[in-house]
Amino acid sequence: METYVNRDLEPGLVELAEAHGVATWYENWRRQPTNVSRAAVTGTLRLLGVDASTPDAVTAALASVRAAHDPGRLPGTVVLRESATRELPSPGVITFEDGSTRQVESLDAGLPLGWHTLACAGQEITLVVVPDALPEAPRAWGWMLQLYAVHSADSWGMGDFGDLRTLAAWSGESGAGLTLLNPLHAPAPVHPVPSSPYSPSSRRFWNPLYLRISDVPGYSERSAEIDALRPPLGDLIDYDEVWRAKRAALELLFPLAGYAGTEDQDLRGYATYCAIAEVHGANWRGWPAELRHPATDAVAALATELHDRVAFHCWLQELCATQLAAANSAAADAGMPVGIVHDLAVGIDPGGADGWMLQDVLASGVHAGAPPDAFNQLGQDWGLAAWRPDQLVATGYRAYRDMLRGILRHAGGLRVDHVAGLWRLWWVLPGAGATDGTYVTYDPEAMAGILALEAHRAGAVVIGEDLGTVLPIVTRGLQRRNMLGSAVMWFARDPDAWADGFVPLADWQPNALASISTHDLPTAAGFLTEEHIRVRAELEQLAGPVSEAEEEARRDRKQLIALLRADGYLTAADPSVDEIIAAMHEALAATPCRLVVASPYDVLAELRQPNLPGTVAQYPNWRIPLPVTLEEFRADPRVEKIMKTLNTH
């Protein structure tokens, strides 16, 4: 397959595209080579600042590429593993993070980890020394939690940081070693509040909807007035109602805070976006032209005019940091070896805060997505912004580093959604459909290496979501760095013999986080009762006849029960749903995987899955609360039974 060439394109264009990491063909879901169109290749190159519109332009661009590859010049950033070496074009001087310097003839193994500067051959570049691998993750179990779905006597219409603190302390004392959360990234601070946690306005800041109002300083002075604002818990979570109530309460408390402001320029920039969004809307691309870049005089003037709102949004982020720190401390005090694990969404809303603040390192107008496959024959456009790999290199990966640092400051671990995006990402070009996109390659030594460095410094584990069709280089790259992959019971099959059933539990990859399901898949009870078939049929989401889907579901259920019987986890002749679910957790705990997580949706036999891919308004994605309160959850005998099972393996 390595020798395949897209014959629809002239050799010079193929060479130019490859030099810039733009794929001219890819292997589709049937493992067949598929050509990328000329329009997609030249359009992607154009967004990378390369003119390939004519043969003469291609020739000129290739000449520039060859000149740039002059062995006498270094790229804008060099990322070096701690055990690796690299020759230099001439002697240079390294300025280390601590301010010390060293003259070097080459980059030798054993340089201190960190972010340094290298002056060499008339250049000054960023030098990042990253660990070869992270320490081995401990063996532990925990909860895989949609935090918004939790509700307790003290929360307002959805789960919050106070609930997280309570759950972390209780579960840690009960033997759990981690709590894996949905993304807690910040949405735009205006209505309507998006339901999906995977399309945030910013991945560098936190969602203030998760603030516990009664933990905010000053609450006791105005508790009666503030409690009157509290929204009820409905059958579905109403994020707009929650934000309306919490914002009103926080605005009452803000004058009592005596907030003195911040010197953190990134935080001030984010808060400036929030303040302007309250006036001009969430999408900065629709703002007046003079406000569409954060460095303009008009933005500075408006930030001064909106000083109180800028300060308010800075204060909200500092409250989030304080309450998250308290939750992390509760996990540590309870003896959790990992603690709270956050989820990093694959991208951001291009019209949001990060899209505005980081537009110089994002590909203008590009959406991340996926090529066509058996279930999505028109491909997928996720509507998320994508990094420009060349600009990451030129700017020393600072935006990427700062994003990771912000999350890891309050984490014992990080799950990376669509981790294959650290290697390559499917770009959907402006105005084009997802079918006419292409893959753009990133430098995994840099992307995964910097992730390893920042996780190492935070003492955090890293989990890559590597489900589905993933290149072997991704899996090998995770394993080499001691980053965990993902193992899901529904996918524990031979991809070349899917209908033959599940693979033995002992064959699961040890360096992985194991779960029964994910937020995008049926719950255990939903699968066992065929609820997922009923709902998808009702919403016309099935790819084929209902009878065919039902037949497949019954085959899968029969195969799962056979697996559980074969390993002795299920003995009843006609087991109930609760008995099968209990056996599934016992089997999960017996896998060699280092981390195992259980979902409250599964343990409580909830039929509805949190998210139904392919739907928007047809299904209440990300709005389904747990069927019991947090207090009831802690006292539920099914929960106690599952915890006992997980603690004894």
UniProtKB/TrEMBL annotation:
Instruction: Determine if Cell inner membrane is one of this entry's keywords.
Output: no
Enzyme Commission code(s) on record: 2.4.1.25
Q: Which taxonomic lineage is given here?
A: Bacteria, Bacillati, Actinomycetota, Actinomycetes, Micromonosporales
Kindly provide the name given to this protein in its UniProt entry. 4-alpha-glucanotransferase
Instruction: Work out whether the entry's keyword set contains Glycosyltransferase.
Output: yes
Recite the UniProt keywords alphabetically: Carbohydrate metabolism, Glycosyltransferase, Transferase
Domain of life (superkingdom): Bacteria
Query: Main EC class of this protein?
Result: transferase
Origin species: Catenuloplanes nepalensis
A GO term, aspect molecular function: 4-alpha-glucanotransferase activity
Protein family (similarity comment): Belongs to the disproportionating enzyme family.
Cited InterPro entries: GH (IPR017853), Glyco_hydro_77 (IPR003385)
The record's catalysed reaction(s) read:
Transfers a segment of a (1->4)-alpha-D-glucan to a new position in an acceptor, which may be glucose or a (1->4)-alpha-D-glucan
